[in-house]
Amino acid sequence: MRRARKALDRTVLSLVNAMTYFGEGSARSTMGNAPRDTVYERGKLRLHRLRAPEPVDYELGHGVHRAEPLRFRTPLLVIPPLMVRPYVYDLRPEHSMLRTLRNAGFDVFVVDFGVPDRSDERVRLDDYVLDYVPACVEQALAASGEKSIALVGYCMGGIFGLLYQGTFADERVAALVTIGSPVDFDSLGVVTVAARMSAPGMDRLINLVGNIPGSLSSFGFKLMSGPRTLTKYADLVVNLYNEDYVRRFDSINTWVNDMIPYPREAFRQMFKEVVTANKLLTNEMRFGDRRCDLKQVRCPLLAFAGTQDNLATPASTRQILDVVGSQDKTFLSVPGGHVGVVAGTQAPEHVWNPMVAWLGGKLS
What we know:
The chain is α/β, with parallel strands linked by helices.
């Protein structure tokens, strides 16, 4: 009787969750909705500042004291990758890297580069490194009233942090955190092989396509996932009764299917100079009249790599220890693939919380 009741309950819950998922979505309405204020905007570029929780009064002895939620004065600038909307850092209220940082007492700013369209086809990596990221650094410092800042980025977001610091050697950068950010593009395995094979015709293809469609990036992610792209739906059916599982599935699946265009010239530059020529590793990158030398990255560095990441492989990310000039540098191999390392179920335990502890020890 108890088993039958349990089976009936699961069936009912599965039907309810299925209707929600295939209707408005289980998590979509709350993705990227952490309370925030826009402190800077120019064109498509936006800089948002997360709102801190209200101060809490507590009793200690015979007095009442106030706990201020902002424990660390040095602001964090969180930079997203290209192709990806910044809600990758805020997938669900109960599973959010941004909220984790904010609730730990950090002053959190997050960059939104916007969605490129045809007018952005000529945008280059130079624009991000020499203009967009520096502008957000300045605006975050101005809004916070502080004199130092920490940079945090996943994948290309982490690479932007490295490129910015390698180009400007900004002494105001107090710390840098990268998550799944490769620096040796000769060590990407199948991605390296595919890039070398497609190099001869890539210019013509880029000229034909223009901005690289987000749907193509989504397809690439699914291709790299192999059979998991299909088997995950079987797992969803089996776990439909579990609302938390369905919400997790919905948020990750929505993100992977919601990638945005990559500006044509930025992609061309990334493919030719970074992926094919591996200039990031050899310190041959130039932006305008500036040379990018990663030995100028001297601030404390924390780098995470997913042990199952077949896009930013551990071998490609571990080289960061050799190319930066930092004396204080830590490299952590953690469970997860390229998506899981920043947004998976184990990310809070193995990435977010260790990052909070490390940053707390470096920043005032």
